[in-house]
Design a protein that fits this description.
By secondary structure, the chain is of the alpha+beta class. 29% of the residues lie in helices and 24% in strands. A hairpin with a 2-residue loop joins strand 4 and strand 5. Helix 1 packs antiparallel against helix 2 and helix 3 packs antiparallel against helix 4. The protein binds magnesium ion.
Length: 252
């Protein structure tokens, strides 16, 4: 299937859904503290989506039971919000928000450090952010998809960490998952050429030691096989001539 190029009108709608996702992400990130449950974060996200006339892009997707994904420490992605799961000091909490507004999806994630003092964990989160920034920088018209993948992998490898290979970024638009798949590893100069109007969800998943992952018995939660921490960050971007537009960037 071909990569869908969005029209200027569709990009306006993408911008709106992405901005809602970003607002929810930032609101939840500010609320994260010891004692708060991931279930409360899911509830707050649901309220914000409802108030905006939007829906979760994740709820019901292949049967996913949550409004958002919340993944703590060794959990990589796809953790399910839970009212019994309290956030603790020292945790890193990935929140992944996908919304559908006016028929278009915005998808974004961040990893919040909750009073983290372990230097290696702090570095892990910082490196995931740097890898995302490098991937976005490579997402320019005329470059190839492999340039994005390679930029992410290069930052992570250089830092001595590993990228998850079993889960990838993706095109995004009317559907949560469109072509292309965007691995967080691979050779530069390969893959489809990027064109203005492509909208991509770029999302490095960075493990501290081994890239191997397991899926929990709940059928969803992905966690590192070695149970060491993992960080996950994501932006939805629109490819342009020159720098990509980060649709889920926080607006001041
Ligand atoms: Mg995504």
């Amino acid at each position: 299937m071909a990569i869908i190029i969005k029209t200027p009108d569709e990009l306006v709608k993408m911008r709106a859904s992405a901005q809602l996702a970003a607002r929810i992400r930032d609101t939840l990130a500010a609320k994260i503290a010891p004692g708060v449950t991931t279930g409360e974060l899911g509830d707050l996200a649901f309220e914000m989506m409802k108030a905006a006339g939007a829906k979760s892009a994740f709820l019901g997707y292949r049967g996913f039971p949550g409004q958002i994904c919340t993944s703590i420490n060794a959990e990589v992605v796809h953790g399910i919000p839970n009212h019994a799961r309290k956030i603790q000091r020292g945790d890193i909490v990935s929140i992944d928000i996908g919304v559908v507004l006016n028929g278009f999806v915005g998808d974004t994630a961040t990893t919040v450090m909750v009073g983290v003092t372990d230097p290696e964990t702090i570095r892990l989160v910082r490196v995931s952010e740097e890898a995302l920034a490098a991937g976005i920088k490579a997402a320019r018209a005329g470059n190839r998809l492999g340039d994005v993948s390679n930029a992410i992998e290069t930052v992570v490898k250089k830092a001595g960490f590993t990228v998850v290979k079993d889960f990838v970024g993706h095109g995004v638009g009317r559907s949560l998952h469109e072509e292309p798949q965007i691995p967080n590893y691979g050779a530069a100069g390969r893959g489809p050429k990027l064109k203005p109007g492509m909208t991509l969800a770029i999302e490095p998943m960075v493990n501290m030691v081994s890239s191997d992952v397991d899926v929990l018995e709940d059928g969803w939660t992905v966690l590192t096989r070695d149970r060491r921490p993992s960080a996950h960050v994501e932006h939805t971007v629109a490819v342009c001539d020159g720098d990509a537009e980060i649709l889920t960037l926080t607006q001041k």
